[in-house]
């Protein structure tokens, strides 16, 4: 049987009343899902919606006479024809659409308060698109406006001044949401208007305008009584989120403290990362503006970290800014409020750059902080310095960026042998990460390859443990470099284990190169007969784990069962 949908769609789109009438008279369902409305919807729509979208008055009348309903509950876009009409701007709302709107409202106004999947009524959609004529028509037929703030928020965010003024004249209440949306859109004229109708004294709008980068809105709010140094729930001031240096200077000139702390103890200097800014240049300029205003580079947050940690961590973020930027950010950071507006400049800049990773400015910001005298030796609650942070979770960062950052800190006097409260050195971390270029650099710089943590483990233990979970041979290469440079293969930790005990233990998920690591240790003289504090030999542990490839390697080296 021939599919009637294509022929019916063509007839509807072309306004062929006779053809549509004949097809319906021949048994074609007036509610048949025909095809998506090109340019308007993503799902198939019934005939009435297609006729509405194309502005065919006579067809709409015919379909209504044939029993068509202006309601499509399964639509992903427009549950009613009124929602569809609301998506037309005032300029596109011709006399034909006005006639269609009145026909539908006179025939079927029962769905005038129906909500879309986004929770919007036809009035909300109309406000979003600034169609004042259709809004008045909806109100004429009973659409509810009293106490409904959503249309005002939609109109304010879209910059539709006539609609905003009309809604205010109708007594729609104002609260923080319309002003938030107007600030986010940078519509200072609407912000100015809303303030005359009783602006809520909440400080969110100022933060929103500062974060998006609307300097004129920021200046207007400050000039009209927004409380200086007002904070949001996490105690951040607008200066913490300022998108540009000009906004930062406006706030500083208005009395904002460059050393104000948020609930985590971080000052604005912690948040000058370029991922929150419209461009790398903005990040550098804001940092410079804060430093010029007297920002203290040695402030430590509640965890004992300085802003240096933040900018080192930012390097990790740049790996997310690729063709999967949004998905990656949501996966790693969740749907936090900042994703909607603070990360937006970085994502937009990424897209403008043809989805290529942005040039990485953190090193330049780090250089500014170092030039301003930041203390590289400050420790966090774990006793770690910024040097530890460079190596932490290296797998998420470009190696070259790590090495450059490491060299920069060394140039400014950082201690490459520094250990935290557990005795963890940077070499331990580099070995655990399989970062063999950094391992080589540290060894060449004279770092002790046999430095011990408080549990007695050397970097060799870290490299061996990493071989169990590796996805490449990087950890085995790291192991080989350590062995080639004098690491003690017989070193014993406090529990009596050697690196070979660590290698045969399956306490971690199996990797691809554990057998190779075992063979390499045996080749370099590891003692297969060595016993741990409980008297167990390496073979005892391997036999318990049941890994035949490792057991065979041990037997081949002369170990006994």
UniProtKB/TrEMBL annotation:
Cited SMART domains: ANK
Ranges for the ANK repeats: 43-75, 118-150, 201-233, 422-454, 495-533, 534-561
Residues spanning the signal sequence: none
Gene3D superfamilies registered for this protein in UniProt: Ankyrin repeat-containing domain
Superkingdom to which the source organism belongs: Eukaryota
Keyword tags: ANK repeat, Repeat
Pfam (any one): Ank_2
Protein name: Uncharacterized protein
């Amino acid at each position: 049987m021939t599919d009637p949908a294509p022929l019916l769609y063509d007839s509807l789109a072309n306004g062929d009343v006779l053809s549509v009438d004949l097809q319906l008279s021949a048994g074609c369902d007036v509610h048949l899902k025909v095809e998506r409305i090109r340019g308007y919807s993503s799902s198939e729509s019934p005939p009435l919606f297609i006729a509405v979208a194309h502005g065919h008055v006579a067809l709409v009348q015919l379909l209504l006479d044939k029993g068509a309903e202006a309601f499509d509950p399964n639509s992903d876009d427009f549950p009613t024809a009124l929602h569809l009409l609301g998506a037309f701007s005032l300029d596109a709302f011709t006399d034909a659409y006005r006639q269609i709107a009145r026909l539908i409202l006179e025939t079927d106004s029962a769905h005038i308060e129906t909500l879309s999947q986004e929770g919007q009524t036809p009035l909300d959609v109309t406000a979003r698109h600034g169609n004042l004529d259709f809004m008045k028509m909806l109100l004429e037929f009973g659409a509810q406006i009293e106490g409904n703030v959503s249309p005002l928020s939609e109109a304010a965010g879209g910059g539709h001044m006539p609609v905003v003024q009309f809604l205010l004249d109708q007594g729609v209440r104002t609260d923080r949401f319309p002003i938030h949306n107007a600030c986010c859109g940078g519509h200072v004229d609407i912000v100015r208007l809303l303030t005359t109708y009783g602006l809520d004294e909440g400080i969110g709008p100022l933060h929103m305008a500062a974060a998006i980068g609307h300097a004129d809105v920021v200046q207007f709010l400050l000039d009209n009584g927004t409380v200086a140094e007002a904070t949001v729930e996490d105690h951040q001031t607008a200066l913490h989120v300022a998108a540009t240096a000009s906004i930062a200077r406006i706030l500083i000139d208005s009395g904002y403290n460059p050393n104000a702390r948020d609930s985590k103890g971080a000052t604005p200097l912690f948040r000058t990362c370029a991922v929150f800014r419209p461009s790398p240049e903005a990040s550098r300029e804001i940092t410079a503006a804060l430093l010029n205003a007297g920002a203290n580079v040695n402030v430590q947050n509640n965890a004992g970290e300085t802003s240096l940690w933040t900018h080192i961590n930012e390097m990790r973020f740049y790996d997310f800014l690729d063709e999967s930027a949004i998905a990656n950010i949501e996966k790693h950071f969740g749907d936090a409020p900042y994703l909607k507006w603070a990360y937006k400049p970085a994502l937009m800049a990424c897209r403008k750059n043809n989805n290529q990773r942005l040039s990485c400015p953190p090193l330049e910001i780090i250089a500014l902080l170092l030039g301003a005298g930041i203390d590289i030796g400050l420790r966090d609650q774990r006793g770690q310095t910024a040097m530890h942070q460079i190596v932490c979770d290296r797998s998420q960062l470009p190696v070259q960026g790590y090495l450059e950052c490491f060299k920069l800190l060394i140039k400014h006097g950082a201690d490459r042998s520094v250990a935290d409260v557990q005795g963890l050195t940077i070499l331990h971390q580099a070995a655990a990460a399989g970062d063999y270029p950094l391992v080589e650099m540290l060894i060449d710089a004279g770092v002790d390859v046999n430095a011990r943590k408080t549990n007695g483990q050397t970097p060799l233990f870290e490299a061996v443990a990493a071989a169990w979970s590796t996805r490449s041979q990087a950890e085995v290469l790291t192991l080989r470099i350590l062995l080639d440079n004098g690491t003690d293969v017989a070193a014993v930790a406090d529990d009596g284990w050697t690196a070979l005990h660590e290698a045969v233990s399956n306490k971690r998920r199996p990797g691809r190169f554990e057998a190779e690591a075992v063979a390499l240790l045996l080749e370099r003289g590891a003692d297969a007969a060595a016993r741990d504090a409980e008297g167990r030999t390496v073979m005892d542990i391997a036999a318990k784990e049941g890994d035949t490839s490792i057991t065979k390697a041990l037997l081949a080296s002369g170990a006994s069962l």
